[in-house]
Amino acid sequence: MAKLAVMQRGHPSLQFSLPPSSLSDFHGVRLSSPVQMKRKPWETRGALQVTASATKKILIMGGTRFIGVFLTRLLVKEGHQVTLFTRGKAAITKKLPGESDEEYSDFSSKVLHLKGDRQDFEFVKKALSAEGFDVVYDINGREANEVEPILDALPNLEQYIYCSSAGVYLKSDLLPHFETDAVDPKSRHKGKLNTESLLQSRDVNWTSIRPVYIYGPLNYNPVEEWFFHRLKAGRPIPIPGSGVQITQLGHVKDLATAFIKVLGHPKASKQVFNISGSKYVTFDGLARACAKAGGFPEPEIVHYNPKDYDFGKLKAFPFRDQHFFASIEKAAKELGWTPEFDLVEGLADSYNLDFGRGTYRKEADFTTDDMILSKTFVLQK
């Protein structure tokens, strides 16, 4: 049987530190002074507006690691009843930097937990049909067969909001990617494509969000953390190719706001939206932006040709070695959503609330760096 348990701890009002300006490409720009937080860690410029007109009974599939942590706080703040469906292997809520004990206790006491394995399809059907939900936020769904039991269990569902990925787009020389661009059925995100196709085929009101690279506090993917480890150790930063490859990052709090924006929004019905930052940045520029955000000296950057090395199964760089960025014009026009973090202040938010406090998800591993640097230094001699 499913277990519904009210978590006994607290509520922070999720508040964002908002930047006054945007920076795009730091290629060739010297960045040396640290970025100072101008507001409290969770402070926002104004009240967040939820377009849904009534309190909803909301189920979040996942929600304990990264995106869901911030999304849950926004939904609870707006008065929705939120249940997280997880295997129960991790704490359902966690206190965030800058939150008081009282705020956290209030938040946690309002979050419900449904324990189970989403791969156990019969359990999912029975548990969800018994509870009934108005809206589902699917944060961790990777395959269409994981979603079908949820739709079967909730025939009266008002909205299914899915976290897809901009990685579904077919590689192209024409950028940025738009929501109407060709997709790659062979990509490693093909499961998300199949899920979008399933949602289109079913009689359900759905919305799909396609983030590019996500960063921010609690990030379990080695995005900004990869750079911070090397900056803290005072090591050169190895970057493949010329370093002018252009990419795009979006802050997790801006992504959470986008998820709120589509809730009950008529223009979000059966639509896909790219969500990321408003600016693009080169690989070299990102290294400098991370240094600026953490108050480190301008880094030494070493370029290398990946074809000259056999890294085996090790990953030498956290980004795909290509231009990769997407237009967020549709979300801005249709939803009235715009990102509130520029890149440097967003990275500073991540550093100050996470890595700079000594917390991170993965230990530093400089194995591939040493392979690159030893060969580079030999060639230089």
From TrEMBL:
Pfam families: Epimerase
InterPro entries in the cross-refs: Epimerase_deHydtase (IPR001509), NAD(P)-bd_dom_sf (IPR036291)
GO terms for MF: UDP-glucose 4-epimerase activity
Gene Ontology biological-process entries: monosaccharide metabolic process
Domain NAD-dependent epimerase/dehydratase span(s) in chain numbering: 58-275
Stored SUPFAM superfamilies: NAD(P)-binding Rossmann-fold domains
Entry's Gene Ontology cellular component terms: cytosol
Protein name (Swiss-Prot/TrEMBL): NAD-dependent epimerase/dehydratase domain-containing protein
Top-rank taxon, per record: Eukaryota
Provenance organism: Spirodela intermedia
